[in-house]
Write a structure and sequence with these properties.
This protein has about 280 residues and is of the alpha/beta class. The chain is built from twelve helices and eight strands. An eight-stranded parallel β-barrel has the order 1-2-3-4-5-6-7-8, surrounded by six helices. The relative contact order is 0.15. Belongs to the OMP decarboxylase family. Type 2 subfamily.
């Protein structure tokens, strides 16, 4: 398969720079008038597929909101992933896995091996057992044409205590992660397949993102407080590689399919204007 970085660049060029989160938490199901069970989950997912599958470049299902319903919820996740991918949407599965050795290899196989029922185009991972612990996922992603987005500078208030901690060499943990990603992506064109997760709400990062040569997933837009205009302040020279992510701002427009689609298109237009 063509490398994820190349496929992402093509998808963004065709459909615009927008990732829509698919987060069926209980409050949102209630807002839509749906039951908080696997039937409500399936109706929610099917509606989102119908509304945006032909219009956005990337979707980001949050696996936990499907997993909470057990095997039947995971079956809905499998179906949702398949439907989006068949429609030409790249699926970034938000699983934030992080472990070592054979366990990390098993996580990678579950989500990145293209013969798996949960096969996705990319996943999120946590590097806080050491960047080297991600090697099984990075290797399988490269083999399968998939992508990996590594947590680097997150917007939750607990994040800076770890991510801004300074190591023996004087670099922060986050900068070390960014530098490691840059090494993996070195020489890739038009874009590397390993990205970083950098919250759109964090303001000026104090970190150098310019050499990463990979996609920068920017969650936190819309209901979480960030606007497209904040992206320039957060990402600076790395702005062309940013993939803005909206969840509630779009999903709150449901369950009406036309309303959902219109909200996604408005978000895409705003991001396109901000990113130039």
């Amino acid at each position: 398969m063509e490398p994820f970085g190349s496929r992402l660049a093509a998808a963004v060029s065709k459909r615009g720079p927008l990732c829509v989160g698919v987060d069926p938490h209980s409050a949102l199901l209630a807002r839509w008038g749906l039951s908080d069970d696997v039937e409500g989950l399936a109706r929610f997912a099917g509606t989102v597929v119908e509304a945006v599958a032909d219009h956005v470049a990337v979707v980001k299902p949050q696996s936990a909101f499907f997993e909470r319903f057990g095997s039947r919820g995971i079956a809905v996740l499998e179906s949702t992933i398949r439907q989006f991918r068949e429609a030409g949407v790249l699926v970034l599965l938000d699983v934030k896995r992080g472990d070592i050795g054979s366990t990390m290899a098993a996580y990678a196989s579950a989500y990145l091996d293209q013969s798996s029922p949960l096969a996705s185009d990319a996943i999120t991972v946590s590097p806080f057992l050491g960047f080297g612990s991600l090697r099984p996922a990075l290797d399988l992603a490269a083999e399968q044409g998939a992508g990996v987005f590594v947590l680097a500078l997150t917007s939750n208030p607990e994040g800076p205590a770890v991510q801004h901690a300074v190591g023996p060499g004087g670099a922060t943990v986050a900068q070390t992660i960014i530098d490691e990603i840059s090494q993996v992506n070195r020489g890739a064109t038009p874009l590397g397949s390993v990205g970083a997760v950098v919250g759109a709400t964090i303001g000026e990062t104090g970190h150098d993102l310019s050499a990463i040569n990979g996609p920068l997933l920017a969650p936190g837009l819309g209901a979480q407080g960030a606007t497209p205009d904040d992206l320039r302040r957060v990402f600076g020279a790395a702005l062309p590689h940013v993939l803005p992510s909206y969840s509630r701002e779009v999903l709150n427009a449901g369950p009406d399919v036309a309303g959902l689609r219109a909200a996604a298109l408005r978000a895409a237009d705003a991001c396109r204007a901000a990113l130039g």
